[in-house]
């Protein structure tokens, strides 16, 4: 049961991250260029610049009462735990 909850949580985080990244608006604001390949480099080149507008996300909390089932567990008899093959 715990493994299923962990897998579900990982899947939920992955899906949320995918949707968050897909909602970003990325515009390239400057072209990149490679440096000159000389023994003496005159211009080191530059990395392209981007303007990223991420979506606004409002995160809040609320209290929720979750019903939990009442489970009665009785220990097994010691005779039932004996392995007949040993």
Q: How many whole angstroms does the radius of gyration measure?
A: 29 Å
Cross-sheet strand order for the largest sheet: 1-2
> CA-to-CA gap between the ends?
31 Å
Tell me about the biggest sheet?
2 strands, antiparallel
Shape: elongated
Tally of DSSP β-strands = 2
The amount of beta strand, in percent, is 5-15%
Taken in chain order, the helices and strands follow as HEEH
Q: Whole-number average pLDDT?
A: 79
Helical fraction equals: 25-40%
Key attributes of the depicted protein:
alpha+beta, 2 helices, 86 residues, two-stranded antiparallel sheet
Describe this entry's structure for a reader:
The chain is α+β, with helices and mostly antiparallel strands. The protein has helices at residues 2-22, 78-81; strands at 25-30, 49-53. Strands 1-2 form a two-stranded antiparallel ribbon. The mean pLDDT is 79. This is Secreted protein. Residues 46-86 are annotated as: Disordered. It comes from Lysobacter zhanggongensis. Residues 71-86 have a biased composition (Acidic residues). Residues 1-22 form the signal peptide.
How would the blueprint of this fold be written?
Elements: H1 2-22, E1 25-30, E2 49-53, H2 78-81
Antiparallel strand pairs: 1-2
Give a brief outline of the structure.
The chain has 86 residues and is of the alpha+beta class.
